[in-house]
Write a structure and sequence with these properties.
homodimer, alpha/beta, VC0802-like, 8-stranded mixed β-sheet, 4-stranded antiparallel β-sheet, 34% helix
Chain lengths: 406, 406
């Protein structure tokens, strides 16, 4: 007997027929003697519909009311899923965020789960009842509904699995696992049986949208074994686990890419102490996350060019912020480029192996691809290149690191 | 300064534009220095959509999950209305049934409000905050969401007005008040300035669907002054008040009709003690409410014919129930008739005046309309007639009792 949390995304509960299919998957676990908690998202499209209602009433909306409204998407699916389970003879009931409660902090619209009161629900689990718990929502310290931000249902599921000390947290989605790279770019992409939390985090942070970043962080912190798998097949998926569980660690586990990047270059900035703080302070104050940063060596005139990348969506706001500080920062020009992509090579194996970055640079050079910016971490090397080379770069690197399927 | 509860039906909050119009009506009361609680229904069509989702998943659904799902309709409108109010500078927030809480009994799907904790919300009112409270929902003793049954939002508003000792409960709807009869039947129908609780109850019970019956009962019990008015105009509506408040009471206040009736006649039932109990007991056990009952005098063979009316929707079920008891009841035949209508003359004035019923019978006779069944109460005379005479009867009675507009 095992204790399992199953999470189903919006496409998996998109209509009544799909909800019935989910109920059958839950039943299979129950029939196998397992204790099950299920965490569904809102029906596909529902959250967008609700968000549009909110923004059509008020541009600068009160996040507390936003949460009250948008959380109804999951409230509907937990009720429907509980009914579908009862309909096939499974004892089940819905537990809303405020009923359990799932306590969060008070940051409405982007709340973080702080604790989950499991006493009552654990009793129910042990009695054989299936818990149907809405993703994405909790209860704030103000006794109002909070939501966790888009994609928060993954986090709900992992947090619940951690609180209930579940043996596994199965994340059902519309892909059947984590791949060495995007299969739409190369048919040689391979599904990974296992991947470490750290690698999954790096994959997520560079655009592989299989799992929400915070859910992976949480799983890593609490040692929750996460499985990513398809709600359309019965194939096993990819296990996201601790490094110790992976016996034969490969050098590189995957190649990720992101086209949601933009690049800003400030031309001829005075090269003096405090200039970086003067530039990035106002951006941070406006909630703009800067990613890669490169500062060139000084020109003769004691000025330097400063280049950094940021999410495409923040570009206009970043330019406006910097233009507003032009007098203070004293730069000659701002140049923005949206036609860039970030390509990352990821693998915990590179910690103990030299030459991983070098192979990346060589491979790209052989294809005539110019590297604009480089950044590295312990288990990742990322480069910024012109967007038009994205597919070529990903395919070349996939082959160069021996990831191609036979 | 007054304390006012405003209730808006589904068509009044059908879309974002209508919600903004509601916000302006609330603002007008706030600007006039009043304390305001607003109770919106779900957006028109939304409750039906949610009920269809429920029934498409499960025919014999768990009413607790039904409540969790269907209550989201009002949860969305309170959020949107709070946002629309904030957007025009009014301090407002939503208060869900479980947050206040509005305590109900545990009859999911048809719960009754038992008490409302007003301590916190009254403080907010006194500080000038507008309360936005969902109609139709409460919190059951099992800590789960309950709903009050269709049309329950009127009841929510009146219960809130009673708990808050509000000076008035304004029910905004798509008609502009209570009329002497249905204006679609005669253009001579007049809007009433005032009507008593008792008359309103009788009007509601015979099909004038302006206010939900339970809300009128509750208003009467707690002396809540209810105003029915249109959300499309600025005209005053109809006040539903205590008899004492109506100085010049008219003999008859209105003519109501209902086509939702059916008639059953049991032919040649043994005329013996206990036979009525044997017939109506099983019907009551099946939740079928019988309305008018007539038992004819005995035939020679010591048998009688028994006629009664019931809601059209229950007809098939009633016949099946009675057929199932045929051996026991020993009747010769069951005859059912759907082509009947109930016409009622209503007025508290008839308590102290003779001849009201007589005028009804004479008027109908003059038009050649046969009366099938008669029933009377202190303030109402109802007759069952063939459905095709409905409009003719209503118009004739409206004129006969001097109700026609000039």
């Amino acid at each position: 007997m095992a204790r399992i949390v199953q999470k189903f995304g919006g496409t998996s509960v998109a209509n009544v027929e799909r909800i019935r299919a989910v109920a059958l998957r839950v039943k299979a676990e129950v029939d196998a003697g397992n204790q099950v908690a299920v965490v569904p998202s809102a029906m596909a499209g529902e959250t967008n519909r609700l968000v549009e209602l909110v923004t059509s009433v008020s541009k600068l909306y009160d996040a507390r009311e936003y949460d009250t409204i948008v959380s109804t998407g999951e409230q509907v699916t937990v009720g429907l899923l509980a009914l579908a389970l009862q309909d096939i003879g499974i004892q089940a009931r819905s537990w809303l965020g405020w009923q359990i409660p799932i306590h969060t902090n008070g940051v409405h619209g982007k709340a973080r789960i702080e604790s989950i009161d499991i006493e009552e629900i654990e009793k129910r689990l042990e009695r054989g009842e299936v818990l149907v718990v809405p993703g994405f929502q909790g209860l704030g310290p103000d006794n109002r509904i909070t939501t966790l931000g888009r994609g928060g249902s993954d986090t709900s599921a992992v947090a619940l699995a951690a609180a209930l000390k579940a043996d596994r947290c199965d994340i059902y989605t519309d892909v059947d696992g984590v791949y060495t790279t995007d299969p739409r770019i190369t048919p040689k992409a391979r599904k990974l049986d296992k991947i470490t939390y750290e690698e999954m985090l790096e994959m997520a942070s560079v655009g592989a949208k299989v799992l929400q970043t915070r859910s992976v962080e949480l799983a890593m912190k609490h040692g929750v074994r996460v499985q990513v798998l398809s709600s359309y097949t019965d194939e096993p998926g990819t296990l996201v686990v601790d490094e110790d569980e992976i016996v034969e660690q490969e050098l590189v586990s995957g190649i990720a890419y992101s086209r949601d990047e933009a690049k800003i270059t400030l031309v001829s900035v005075p090269d003096q102490p405090g200039i970086a703080a003067a530039i990035f302070g106002p951006l941070a104050d406006n909630g703009i996350n800067v990613d890669m940063i490169v500062q060139n060596i000084s020109h003769d005139n004691n000025a330097t060019d400063l280049t950094f990348t940021l999410p495409m969506a923040d570009l206009e706001r970043a330019i406006a912020t910097l233009e507003g500080k032009r007098g203070e920062l004293n730069f000659a020009d701002i140049r923005a480029d949206k036609n860039v992509a970030k390509i990352s090579v990821i693998g915990v194996g590179m910690r103990s192996h030299a030459g991983v970055a070098q192979r990346m640079f060589t491979t790209l050079a052989e294809k005539g691809i110019n590297i604009q910016v480089i950044s590295t971490s312990e288990i990742k090397v990322s480069v910024l290149i012109a967007e038009e080379y994205t597919e070529l770069a990903v395919r070349a690197l996939h082959t160069a690191y021996g990831l191609d399927a036979d």
